[in-house]
């Protein structure tokens, strides 16, 4: 009769319950090993580079950690940025802007390729660097040739070019600034300004 | 900044007025907290809003925006009336005793010489009485009513506490409490520090705001000392550097100035740049101008710049007007500007009157943007609904959006607010197809050069003769450029430090002391000389030692000028060369020379009894309580209301705005008045964001996601606005919609008996990036500039406000 | 079932329809539960077992290993409330079926007084009982109440879907109530199961659907009488409409028993 | 995952086994000096950056608290309160909310999953995600309302006190970033000393009730506050006055757990012994016969009754 086996099942369940209950008093021995671990330290083999925060003028020192060790086949990519503890001003601290720099470096909306918009168009189109620089040089030269003022009305030599202007970047380096100055001013450009004005 | 960031910790009283460093410069602000924690210093905040800085202040005093000069003039009056000035300092280190011309005067809000049609002054009367010896006359007893200090006393006499309260809305008791706290710092062992930023500069009287506090600091004897000074907290990482390098419409590197059209010849140009001392025995360091000029022009044109052609003087463009940003957009609007290059700048969001800016850009033939991020400017032609309404098919501008490396990928130096030049190194490869700015500029240059060589063209001598000695002309390395900026010898020169020695040609200069006027030295920016010597790149130094914890760290990077960390540091010692406060020693006279923790801002071996003033750049050798003809809108500060003000100027009811403030003709029509726009608007940064950059960074977008305006509970109640409601804010120039942050931190100011409600408009949102789309704050702001710098008046304008519904998502 | 008959006796088809002759002479079986009821019971029992195992695994660390039966902690946590949902449905059906027969009456009080004897297997002086004794009724009502408590508190702490509707404080009470109710319910079930082991012949009722006549006579004589007289439907929940002793007031119409 | 064994565990959720305790170490703590907090949210940014957390961008709710609340990807949050003090002066009280790393952690107490929550000897309470089963008992156990469940992976998250950084000797990301040193990090003993000097400074500036928030109800915490108004922590966005593990949770996870299981065991064991003692309750042939008779001879019902009366065979 299968009845016995059914009963056996029920009895077994009850016994099992008793055993498990007993287990709760320490007879179980079902403990897992104490295997909890901390997250691995993510910077252990990254490359550390000293840099300066590009935002405000406090000039907080940065330690920029990047993937890759500058070996031939590894493409360096920043994966973490924190304050440089040696820096006399920020001493390792960063404000919310500096602490979020990683997302500026890897922003979705970073410019990726030279883009060009035709007159009247409603979109930017990808172009090559050569094409873009050729075209810009052409436009600038044409404008300069046409509108450069060598002499003022009273005959004074003024050598100025007023129809093309430029705004310079407050976060670019002094070296960039110097090259920019040399290039723009020597062409006679006067409408040359920067954020200090604002 | 005259001092360093760390030096803030040496102050006893820190006045934050015209700034919000906790919010805009948190890591520099730590030194304010250090002063509080370790020195027991007090922090006072004077601001229309209870800011994050105010949240840790010991004392907060509200003030209506645009009335700082009235407030501080009241302070000056209080100090003079109560004799709370540092007498020895004022007498010896400032021009207090110099006599002002008899025909100089001030009446009804105007100084002598005003021409209303030009909105400018004839400044002939704005100078000293000059004796037969060619020097300015003095009255050491300070009794003569024409003594500068007496002229000043007369000028501020109307700013009684009652009058100050009527103008500024600062309660009298709070104003007086601030006066008392400041007055304590007139003692030589107590030092006050002024921290300011765009809260002072972005006004039509911005420069004079700063002047007023300078006067206070001079009266208290706090310039040139540890913990003191005037500390302009600059906004951007290298705004100092760009200004130093001369990227301003009227500048050349090292604060040399471009010739104006009237200076047709080199002699005329130099005659305006003599810097002859106005008192005996003064250094007047600008007398070396010809050396700076010649060395710079060698850097610009190399061999083509010769003594014979006055170092290519004629090739310099000459100014017939100021071509600042506002002017550039005015030209654009008038169709007089064809091409514009934005090298990492976002004018559509940063320049006042956004609607005017957009319309102006649309008149360009071509626009080039070079930026690591997609900017609103590079997409100004794109229709984004109410956030950027435009019809692209009507915009004929060719637009180039060029991808540029960011800080993480480039190398070079940045100048911080304290004038430190710090080198940085790239941490990753340029992503995608981005290139460095230098490569792009050089690339365009090479192409234009080739075109000129092939086709010829208009006057291209300066282009083909540009000094371009770089190994790869298409991408000069930052190292090469930094060496050139520092300067080197082109021919053997005598060593000024030791005339028995000769420095051979081709050597890096040790500093600007070695510059020559004859073309034997080349130096791209004289104030930077010393940054890259024969010893190597000083900007890359990383030595942390800071003797006496003075907050100087002399061997960390390089500070211009001459690695000097605290400007005017000679003034930290008395007339005998003994520090005013031994606890705060910077430099002292040891009997033979000046020694101390910083590089002396003085002749190293000039004894204190020689009568040389501590302010070696000025012709007086002294600091100027009254600044002659050097400011366009007056030698002393005067309270003028902002161009858009909720009240009339009760001091000078006939004057609207700063009489010399910059306004273009059509922009007068775009001013509103208090009848239609009753609330006092102001714009500002928030700590979570940096201008229009961080809205591209997810982390920062999370921290402050959406455009809002801040209003007080009283105004909110009046308008039926609850926290989180949408409101429409509009000025004569445009309208924005924003979420309302209703706060106790903004309270109505009672000005001349009537309440003025402040509406705060933070600036950080646009139509590109990770944040929620928002209207720009610059939709509201007026196109008006400071009289001296042409900086737009972003901090004070008029708006109206009402409850509304959320904007349609574009 | 096929049954052999003796001539003297009534043929199977002649005796009350819920009593059947057994293979063994002189024995009868009495129907107690139909197939639907048994399936319903066992589904409920299975769910209860799953709930017990999964619940206990989260109740005490030493029982956490039980979660492995369900594929680990995450799965246990995810399945447990769903078991509960099925249980509540299944149990509700049981409840509807059996509630009328579980209304307490005076016999229950008398029976309870003799509980001491009962546990010693002494039945002398016990009242004749209907289909359920007081102990069974206590199981029925106890589980009904506790399962309701567990259901309601379970919903409150079912974070995945209902987490946002209540405060943390309410959830704390709910958790305590849930686990307390569960423990009592398990206790009851232990007794319930043991009773099935202890009282021989009982499990047949839920497995085969019938009990021996002797079992019915011994434990539920009043019920047997009614069944034997054909006055009462044997199946629980199908009380004879005309039974004056039935505690149920009115007739309840049900579908066919088999 | 690597196991550096750099931090020893002193407590482990849902575990009866004692972790090894031979080695002792220093307790660490974060001291948050609210009086010098400027609410800049650098701590929030640094936390997101270091821990690779990015909450979806929300909207402005009319205040400065952003994101709106803690979440699985927001482990720390500045909460802003505008408070007008009795003198009529405004105070902007800004508190960095996040896990307090209690010495007696309610989350750990409530957790049913072995090793899902651990406490290291330095005081850090950490969630070990691979062991987390998503039951949210910790949420109910926490007296500070900190842990948050992620609906996607059904795991609970909170501040780890940058255990990965601390393990290699660095300060937590938030503490390192904090521009005004409002967040200090060090040994708990040092932080208490630091707090004392801060309290003295605040007393000198007129904050008589300044004090340290290190609530004894949870055995002290490893994130402590210096408050200007220590007498009324509720001012700071409802910081609990006297936090402790809820008595209900304590009951549920304390005595009840043991008593309950004991009860079950007793019932099971008791039943067994009852069976042994009393034996089964069986029907005898008499009962069967009576029942048979009742079915087949219904008229004789009364006669046959009584035969079944109970004399149980004793086995």
What report would you give on this structure?
The complex is a heterotetramer of chains A (198), B (810), C (258) and D (315). Helices cover 34% and strands 20% of the residues of chain A. With 198 residues, chain A is an alpha+beta fold. Chain A starts with a helix and ends with a strand. Chain C is elongated. Residues 1-8 and 234-258 of chain C have low confidence and may be disordered. With 315 residues, chain D is α+β, with helices and mostly antiparallel strands. Chains in contact: A-B, A-C, A-D, B-D, C-D. At the A-B interface, β1, β2, β3, α2 and α3 of A face α2, α10, α12, α13 and β12 of B.
Distinctive features:
heterotetramer, A: 198 residues, alpha+beta, N-terminal domain of TfIIb, three-stranded antiparallel β-sheet, two-stranded antiparallel ribbon, 9 strands, 34% helix, 20% strand, elongated, disordered N terminus, C: 258 residues, mainly alpha, Fumarate Reductase Cytochrome B subunit, 10 helices, 3 strands, 55% helix
What is the topology?
The complex is a heterotetramer of chains A (198), B (810), C (258) and D (315).
Chain A: H1 2-27, E1 47-52, E2 61-67, E3 77-83, H2 96-99, H3 101-105, E4 115-117, E5 125-126, H4 129-147, E6 149-151, E7 157-160, E8 164-168, H5 174-186, E9 192-194
Parallel strand pairs in A: 8-9
Antiparallel strand pairs in A: 1-2, 2-3, 4-5, 6-7
Chain B: E1 13-17, H1 21-24, H2 26-39, E2 42-46, E3 59-61, H3 68-81, H4 87-93, E4 106-107, E5 110-111, E6 114-115, E7 120-121, H5 148-155, H6 161-168, H7 172-183, E8 192-196, H8 198-201, H9 206-220, E9 230-232, H10 239-244, E10 251-252, E11 256-257, H11 266-271, H12 289-301, H13 325-333, E12 339-343, H14 347-350, H15 354-361, E13 366-371, E14 398-403, E15 412-415, E16 420-424, H16 437-455, H17 461-464, H18 478-486, E17 488-489, E18 493-494, E19 502-503, E20 521-522, E21 532-533, E22 536-537, E23 558-559, E24 587-589, E25 594-596, E26 662-663, H19 665-668, E27 679-684, H20 698-703, E28 708-712, H21 713-719, E29 726-730, E30 735-743, E31 749-751, E32 754-756, E33 758-762, E34 784-785, E35 797-804
Parallel strand pairs in B: 1-2, 1-8, 2-3, 8-9, 12-13, 13-14, 27-33, 28-30
Antiparallel strand pairs in B: 4-5, 6-7, 10-11, 15-16, 16-23, 17-20, 18-19, 21-22, 24-25, 26-34, 27-35, 28-33, 29-30, 29-35, 31-32
Helix pairs in contact in B: 3-6, 3-7, 3-9, 13-15
Chain C: E1 19-21, E2 28-31, H1 35-59, H2 73-98, H3 106-113, H4 115-119, H5 134-157, H6 159-162, H7 168-198, H8 203-207, E3 210-212, H9 213-219, H10 221-228
Antiparallel strand pairs in C: 1-2, 2-3
Helix pairs in contact in C: 1-2, 2-5, 5-7, 9-10
């Amino acid at each position: 009769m299968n009845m016995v086996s059914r009963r056996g099942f029920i009895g077994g369940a009850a016994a099992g319950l008793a055993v498990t209950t007993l287990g709760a008093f320490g007879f179980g021995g079902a403990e897992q090993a104490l295997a909890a671990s901390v997250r691995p330290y993510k910077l252990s083999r990254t490359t550390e580079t000293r840099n300066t925060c590009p935002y405000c003028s406090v000039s907080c020192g940065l330690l920029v950690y990047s993937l890759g060790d500058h070996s031939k086949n590894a493409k360096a990519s920043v994966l973490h940025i924190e304050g440089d503890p040696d820096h006399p001003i920020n001493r390792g601290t960063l404000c919310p802007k500096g602490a979020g720099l990683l997302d500026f470096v890897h922003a979705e909306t970073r410019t990726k390729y030279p883009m060009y918009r035709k007159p009247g168009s409603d979109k930017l189109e990808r172009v090559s660097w050569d094409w873009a620089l050729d075209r810009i040089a052409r436009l600038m030269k044409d404008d300069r040739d046409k509108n450069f003022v060598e002499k003022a009305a009273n005959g004074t030599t003024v050598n100025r070019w007023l129809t093309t202007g430029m705004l310079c970047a407050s976060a670019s380096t002094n070296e960039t600034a110097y090259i920019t100055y040399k290039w723009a001013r020597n062409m006679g450009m006067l409408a040359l300004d920067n954020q200090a004005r604002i | 900044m005259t001092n360093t960031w760390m030096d803030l910790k040496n102050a006893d009283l820190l006045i934050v007025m015209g700034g919000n460093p906790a919010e805009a410069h948190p890591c520099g602000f730590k030194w304010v907290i250090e002063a509080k924690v370790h020195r027991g210093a007090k922090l006072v905040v004077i601001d229309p809003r209870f800011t994050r800085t105010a949240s840790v202040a010991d004392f907060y005093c509200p003030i209506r925006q645009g009335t700082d000069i009235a407030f501080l003039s009241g302070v000056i009056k209080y100090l003079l009336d109560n004799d709370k000035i540092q007498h020895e300092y004022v007498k010896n280190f400032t021009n207090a005793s110099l006599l002002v011309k008899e025909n100089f005067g001030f009446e009804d809000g105007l100084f002598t010489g005003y021409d209303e049609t030009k909105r400018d002054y004839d400044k002939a009367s704005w100078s000293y009485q000059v004796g037969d010896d060619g020097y300015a006359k003095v009255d050491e007893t300070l009794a003569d009513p024409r003594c500068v200090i007496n002229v000043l006393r007369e000028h501020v006499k109307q700013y009684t506490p009652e009058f100050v309260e009527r103008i500024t809305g600062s309660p009298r008791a709070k104003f007086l409490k601030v006066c008392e706290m400041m007055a304590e710092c007139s003692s030589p062992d107590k030092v006050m520090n002024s921290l300011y930023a765009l809260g002072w500069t972005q006004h039509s009287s911005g420069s004079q705001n700063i002047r007023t506090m300078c006067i206070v600091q001079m009266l208290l004897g706090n310039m040139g000392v540890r913990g003191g000074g005037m500390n302009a907290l600059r906004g951007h990482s290298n705004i100092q550097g760009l200004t130093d390098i001369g990227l301003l419409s009227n500048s050349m590197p090292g604060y040399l100035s471009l010739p104006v059209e009237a200076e047709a010849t080199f002699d005329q140009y130099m005659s305006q740049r003599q810097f002859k001392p106005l008192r005996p025995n003064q250094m007047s360091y600008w007398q070396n101008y010809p050396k700076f000029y010649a060395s710079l022009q060698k850097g610009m044109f190399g061999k083509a710049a010769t003594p014979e052609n006055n170092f290519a003087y004629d090739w310099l463009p000459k100014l017939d007007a100021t071509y600042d940003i506002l002017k550039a957009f005015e030209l654009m609007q008038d169709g007089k500007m064809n091409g514009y290059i934005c090298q990492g700048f976002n004018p559509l969001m940063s320049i006042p009157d956004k609607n005017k800016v957009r319309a102006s850009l649309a008149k360009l033939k071509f626009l080039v943007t070079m930026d690591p991020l997609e900017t609103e400017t590079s997409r100004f032609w794109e229709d984004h609904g109410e956030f950027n309404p435009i019809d692209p098919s009507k915009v004929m501008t060719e637009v180039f959006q060029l991808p540029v490396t960011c800080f993480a990928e480039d190398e070079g130096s940045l100048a911080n607010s304290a004038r430190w030049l710090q080198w940085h190194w790239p941490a990753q490869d340029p992503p995608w197809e981005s290139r460095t700015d230098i490569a792009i500029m050089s690339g365009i240059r090479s192409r234009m050069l080739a075109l000129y060589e092939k086709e010829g063209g208009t006057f291209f001598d300066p282009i083909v003769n540009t000094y371009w000695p770089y190994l790869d002309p298409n991408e000069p390395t930052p190292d090469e450029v930094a060496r050139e900026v520092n300067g080197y010898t082109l021919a053997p020169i005598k060593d000024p430090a030791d005339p028995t020695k000769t420095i051979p040609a081709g050597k890096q200069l040790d500093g600007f002391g070695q510059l020559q006027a004859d073309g034997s030295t080349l130096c791209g920016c004289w104030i930077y000389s010393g940054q890259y010597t024969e010893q190597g790149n000083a900007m890359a130094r990383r030595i942390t030692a800071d003797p006496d914890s003075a907050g100087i760290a002399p061997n960390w990077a390089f500070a211009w000028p001459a690695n000097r960390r605290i400007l005017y540091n000679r003034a930290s010692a008395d007339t005998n060369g003994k520090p005013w406060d031994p606890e705060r020693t910077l430099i002292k006279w040891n009997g033979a020379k000046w020694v101390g923790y910083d590089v002396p801002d003085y002749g190293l071996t000039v004894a204190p009894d020689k009568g040389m003033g501590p302010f070696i750049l000025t012709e007086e050798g002294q600091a100027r309580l009254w600044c002659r003809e050097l400011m366009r809108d007056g030698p002393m500060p005067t309270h003028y209301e902002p161009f858009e003000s909720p009240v009339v100027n009760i001091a000078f009811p006939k004057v609207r705005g700063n009489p010399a403030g910059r306004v273009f003709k059509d922009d007068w029509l775009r001013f509103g008045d208090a009848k239609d726009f009753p609330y006092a608007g102001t714009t500002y940064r928030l700590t979570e964001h940096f201008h229009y950059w961080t809205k591209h960074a997810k982390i920062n977008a999370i921290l402050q996601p959406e455009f809002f305006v801040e209003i007080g509970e009283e105004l909110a109640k009046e308008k039926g606005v609850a926290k989180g409601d949408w409101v429409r804010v509009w000025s004569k120039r445009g309208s924005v919609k924003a979420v309302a942050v209703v706060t106790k931190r903004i309270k109505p100011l009672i000005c001349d008996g009537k309440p003025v409600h402040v509406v705060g408009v933070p600036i950080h949102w646009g139509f590109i990036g990770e944040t929620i789309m928002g209207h720009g704050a610059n939709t509201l702001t007026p196109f008006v500039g400071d009289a001296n710098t042409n900086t737009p008046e972003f901090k004070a304008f008029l708006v109206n406000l009402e409850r509304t519904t959320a904007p349609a998502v574009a | 079932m096929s049954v052999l008959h003796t001539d003297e006796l009534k043929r199977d088809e002649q005796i009350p329809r819920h009593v059947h002759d057994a293979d063994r002479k002189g024995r009868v079986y009495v129907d107690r539960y139909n197939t639907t009821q048994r399936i319903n019971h066992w589904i409920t029992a299975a769910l209860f077992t799953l709930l017990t195992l999964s619940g206990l695994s989260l109740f005490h660390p030493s029982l956490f290993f039980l979660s492995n039966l369900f594929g680990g902690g995450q799965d246990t946590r995810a399945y447990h409330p769903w078991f509960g949902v099925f249980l509540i449905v299944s149990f509700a059906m049981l409840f509807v079926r059996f509630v009328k027969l579980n209304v307490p009456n005076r016999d229950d009080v008398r029976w309870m007084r003799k509980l001491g004897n009962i546990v010693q297997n002494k039945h002398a002086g016990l009242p004749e009982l209907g289909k359920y004794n007081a102990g069974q009724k206590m199981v029925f009502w106890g589980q009904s109440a506790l399962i309701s408590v567990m259901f309601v508190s379970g919903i409150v702490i079912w974070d995945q879907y209902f987490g946002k509707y209540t405060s943390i404080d309410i959830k704390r009470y709910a958790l305590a109530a849930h686990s307390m109710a569960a423990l009592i319910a398990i206790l009851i079930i232990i007794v319930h199961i043991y009773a099935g082991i202890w009282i021989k012949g009982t499990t047949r009722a839920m497995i085969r659907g019938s009990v021996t006549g002797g079992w019915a006579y011994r434990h539920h004589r009043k019920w047997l009488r009614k069944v034997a007289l054909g006055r009462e439907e044997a199946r629980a929940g199908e009380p004879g409409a005309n039974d004056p002793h039935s505690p149920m007031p009115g007739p309840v119409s049900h579908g066919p028993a088999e | 995952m690597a196991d550096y064994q750099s931090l020893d565990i002193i407590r482990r959720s849902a575990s009866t086994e004692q972790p090894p305790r031979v080695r002792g170490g220093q307790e660490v703590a974060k001291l948050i000096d609210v009086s010098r907090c400027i609410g800049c949210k650098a701590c929030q940014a640094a936390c997101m950056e270091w821990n690779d957390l990015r909450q979806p961008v929300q909207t402005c709710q009319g205040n400065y608290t952003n994101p709106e609340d803690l979440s699985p990807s927001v482990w720390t949050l500045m909460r802003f309160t505008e408070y007008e003090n009795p003198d009529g002066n405004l105070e902007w009280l800004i508190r960095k909310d996040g896990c307090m790393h209690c010495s007696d952690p309610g989350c750990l107490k409530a957790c049913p999953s072995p090793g899902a929550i651990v406490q290291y000897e330095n005081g850090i309470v950490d969630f070990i995600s691979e062991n987390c089963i998503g039951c949210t008992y910790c949420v109910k156990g926490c007296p500070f309302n900190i842990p948050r469940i992620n609906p996607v992976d059904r795991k609970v998250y909170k501040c780890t006190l940058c255990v990965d950084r601390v393990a290699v000797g660095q300060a937590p990301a938030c503490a390192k970033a904090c521009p005004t040193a409002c967040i200090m990090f060090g040994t708990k003993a040092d932080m208490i000393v630091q707090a004392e000097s801060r309290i003295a400074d605040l007393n000198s500036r007129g904050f008589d009730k300044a004090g340290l928030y290190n609530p004894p109800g949870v055995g002290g915490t490893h994130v402590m506050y210096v408050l200007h108004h220590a007498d009324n922590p509720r001012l700071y966005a409802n910081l609990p006055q006297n936090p402790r593990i809820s008595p209900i949770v304590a009951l549920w996870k304390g005595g009840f757990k043991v008593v309950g299981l004991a009860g079950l065991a007793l019932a099971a064991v008791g039943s067994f012994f009852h069976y042994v003692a009393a034996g089964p309750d069986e029907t005898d042939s008499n009962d069967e016969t009576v029942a048979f008779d009742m079915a087949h001879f219904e008229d004789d019902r009364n006669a046959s009754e009584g035969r079944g009366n109970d004399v149980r065979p004793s086995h």
